[in-house]
Specification:
Elements lengths: L1 H29 L8 H17 L5 H22 L9 H23 L10 H4 L1 E4 L2 E4 H23 L1 H11 L1 H6 L4 H27 L5 H4 L1 H11 L4 H21 L4 H15 L10
Antiparallel strand pairs: 1-2
Helix pairs in contact: 1-6, 1-9, 1-11, 1-12, 2-3, 2-9, 3-9, 6-7, 7-9, 11-12, 12-13
């Protein structure tokens, strides 16, 4: 029984990482109508920033996280301002081809700069110690991932639902011409929103190095399951992304533990069922 509970705890931690990976894509896809399959490249960028800052720069672990977020967000804004903004009006197929090409280019650059090997990330001692929760010993890093995911989710919910920035984003998506007519700088707003999504992916990448590992193939390893989170949760829905990410993380971990022969394929069957039952996702939103 304790083994199963430990597996569920791992699944929750994995789900929180999936949430951080996917919520930025949910924002760009659901609010900005851009199919960004290069989203994993921003997660990889955040992972490399954190690994290099911690391993070579001697930056404390907790400071590597905002650093990864900020650097990746700035790169995302620069990419949006220079090339991505020209893709918004293109058909969906061209957006897919462009963004997947961008992901391959980022992977090639990472291979040239850092080599094909896995990046090591030495976690501080306080994260490697088990935590006693209600008599159960759970890895401290798992607990930290869950807390980080909860804080990020709460901050995003408040940002998009309780601030002027969120109201402007929704207004610009509903009617760009009207938003511009009342003085909203939609171009700048979309750049900031894209940077926010990239920064969140970078934060997820930084947190994932000690849990999932990091190498230049990272943008493609988790692309499918990130897209599953967005599709099941509903594009643009933070609450839907939370439910989908936690559900997929726990179900994937539990079935791999209980039924290892087919456990890896259960979540794909679940995707088919969910898309038939909820074609617009749990939030009922169309991208």
């Amino acid at each position: 029984m304790s083994g199963l509970i430990s597996v569920i705890a791992d699944g929750v931690a994995y789900g929180m990482l999936l949430l951080l990976f996917s919520v930025g894509l949910s924002v760009t896809l659901g609010l900005m109508r851009f199919i960004n399959l290069a989203h994993g490249a921003f997660a990889m960028c955040g992972g490399y920033v954190a690994a290099l800052a911690l391993g070579r720069g001697g930056v404390p672990f907790l400071l590597t996280l905002p650093l990864a977020f900020a650097v990746t967000a700035l790169i995302g804004i620069a990419a949006e301002r220079t090339v991505i903004r020209h893709v918004y009006a293109m058909p969906a197929l061209q957006q897919v081809l462009f963004s997947i090409g961008l992901a391959f280019a980022a992977s090639a650059v990472a291979t040239i700069l850092f080599g094909p090997q896995q990046q090591a990330m030495l976690l501080p001692d306080w994260l490697t110690q088990p935590v006693d929760l209600f008599g159960l010993h759970i890895g401290g890093y798992r607990v930290f991932l869950v807390l980080a995911g909860l804080l990020a989710t709460a901050a995003l919910f408040l940002l998009f639902n309780r601030t002027l920035f969120g109201a402007r984003i929704r207004a610009a998506v509903d009617s760009r011409r009207t938003a511009e007519g009342i003085g909203i700088n939609v171009d700048r707003l979309f750049a900031v929103a894209f940077g926010l999504g990239a920064g969140l992916a970078g934060l997820g990448g930084a947190l994932s190095v000690g849990f999932l590992g990091l190498d230049p193939t990272f943008p493609f390893k988790y692309l499918t399951i990130v897209l599953m989170v967005v599709a099941i949760g509903g594009p643009g829905s933070i609450g839907g992304s939370v439910l989908a990410a936690l559900g997929l993380g726990v179900i994937d971990a539990v079935f791999k533990y209980l039924w290892p022969e087919v456990g890896s394929f259960v979540i794909y069957g679940l995707l088919v069922i969910m898309m038939i039952a909820f074609p617009t996702g749990l939030a009922g939103r169309r991208a």
